[in-house]
Write a structure and sequence with these properties.
Bound molecules: flavin-adenine dinucleotide
Number of domains: 2
Number of strands: 17
Largest sheet: 7 strands, parallel
Number of helices: 9
CATH topology of the largest domain: Rossmann fold
Structural class: alpha/beta
């Protein structure tokens, strides 16, 4: 059976991850006249496949990975290989996240296909499609073309439209089981490192610090600005946590929290894709950065070219 595009579904907090809808949007751009198919590999007993078929109207394969106590790159790779070997496809679309980057490039290589990660857009000319992938903290974009007939594409969350498509029918759900045993890696389950901050989850205004805040003491300015708002919370980029200045529960981004507040204020944050993927669905983005070429300005609604600490001091003065 010929299948043009296959989408690897994602879930988050027991819901369909909006990035799955972004992948459907991307599939529509790549092959507007053909419906993609969804594959949902899982080691749990959730009925997310049914939910996906209802919300998308697309055919969903629930690929049950038996006997695994948690995510295991070896079994996921083998299960997906077994599934894909029955298919003819041009693209496999997946989210550019830690798990997929862990096993998808190896899977693509095993099947003799190209793999392009961190895709933030596409460029179509008459007879070819190229994929945009940010380089040098988002200051440049590489234009990449897969060499092989089929390609695995890892799309950066936040780069495409996340609106569920309007289908009137419910898609078909197909069950497939993979029962192979891993040879090299045995998963012993998962441990959750640290909960996200409750304030951050509920915040309507998020004031976030990046490396450009320069001194740990300046975090006080971030905190005071956040407390100006009724439902305000502080947050930060990863280097702030890595330096031990704030707990990881405040980190926003691919390996931290995903936030969708009314206002997100990025202070001294460059705008790496790993950070953007956690806050790009905020309603209004305000960026304060002293570099006029900072990539965050491409994502912001309000761009302020200023020293972050001086700006916050003035802002607090005006507001008090
Ligand atoms: C697998 C993986 C996962 C990751 N996950 C995440 C994640 O979840 N979240 C995350 O944030 N990062 C994550 N990262 C790290 C990410 O790639 C970036 O390194 C990080 O986001 C950069 O943080 P930053 O913008 O604070 O720092 P930088 O990139 O160093 O940027 C600092 C910015 O501050 C500006 N600046 C400097 N001085 C001032 C000043 N005085 N006033 C105003 N602006 C100033 C600079 O112009 C610059 O734009 C991840 C990386 C990897 C490899």
């Amino acid at each position: 059976m010929t299948q043009k595009t296959i989408i690897l579904a994602e879930e988050i907090n027991q819901e369909i991850n909006p990035v799955t809808f972004e992948l459907i949007d991307l599939a529509g751009k790549l092959a507007p006249s053909e419906d993609p198919e969804i594959v949902y590999p899982t080691h749990t007993d959730t009925d997310r496949a049914k939910q996906l078929a209802e919300k998308t109207g697309l055919r969903v394969t629930r690929l049950k990975i038996q006997g695994s106590r948690g995510y295991n790159p070896e079994t996921y790779k083998q299960a997906m290989q077994t599934y894909l070997e029955q298919k003819r496809f041009t693209y496999l679309l997946a989210a550019n996240n830690t798990r997929n980057r862990d096993y998808i490039p190896a899977l693509a290589h095993r099947l003799g296909n190209s793999c392009i990660s961190q895709i933030s857009g596409i460029k179509q000319s008459e007879n070819k499609i190229c994929f945009l992938s940010p380089m040098f903290a988002g200051k440049y974009e590489a234009l990449l073309e897969p060499e092989t007939g089929s390609a695995f594409l890892l799309a950066q969350p936040g780069s495409f439209q996340a609106n569920p498509p309007l289908f009137e029918t419910v898609g078909e759900v197909v069950e497939q089981t993979y029962a192979g045993k891993p040879k090299f890696i045995h998963s012993q389950g998962m441990e959750h490192d640290q909960e996200e901050s409750e304030d951050l989850k509920k915040a309507q205004v998020v004031v976030s610090a990046g490396r450009g805040i320069n001194e740990q003491d300046n975090l006080e300015l971030i905190k005071r600005t956040a407390t100006l708002f009724n439902k305000g919370s502080m947050a930060c980029s990863r280097p702030i946590c890595d330096m031990g200045w704030l707990d990881y529960k405040y980190q926003v981004g691919e390996t931290g929290a995903t936030v969708t507040p009314e206002v997100y204020m990025a202070c001294g944050i460059s705008g790496s894709m790993q950070h953007i993927s956690g806050m790009s669905r905020s309603q209004l983005i305000v960026a304060v950065n002293k570099d006029p070429g900072a990539s965050i300005f491409n994502h912001a609604d309000i761009c302020i070219q200023e020293d972050a600490a001086s700006f916050l001091e003035t802002f607090l003065e005006v507001c008090s």
